[in-house]
Amino acid sequence: MTGLVLDATQQSTGYGQSDMIMMIGMVVLFGAIMYFMIYLPQKKRDKKLKEQMDKLVVGDKVVTIGGLVGIVAHITEDDVTIYTSAANTPVTFTKSAIQTVIPRNPDASSDKKSDSKKEKKSEKKES
Hints:
This protein folds into two domains: 15-54; 56-104, SH3 type barrels (Roll). Helix content is 54%, strand content 22%. The protein is built from three helices and five strands, in the order ααβββββα. Strands 4-3-2-1-5 form a five-stranded antiparallel sheet.
């Protein structure tokens, strides 16, 4: 009689122990997927932006989170003043409002890499 009661309760809930383990496994799997697809790339972007902000100098071109593009004129501990438009209008922002930094003098190493790729392509065309 006891076996019938267990079978009846198991059938009424519809879940066995293996089903519960499977559900927990799926939650853990989705958590891991979300971690690797959302959290890690965002962490890398934040780290890269922090490095750019540390290297920020007067004359660099910046884009704010509002889409305003300008050239850095003055840097303080928390604020950055940029000149925008042809009228050189000064606008002051907090450093956290800067989305992208375009260095005034791009890395010479990246130029050398692109030049070497162009040379290889021209060599292939010649032969």
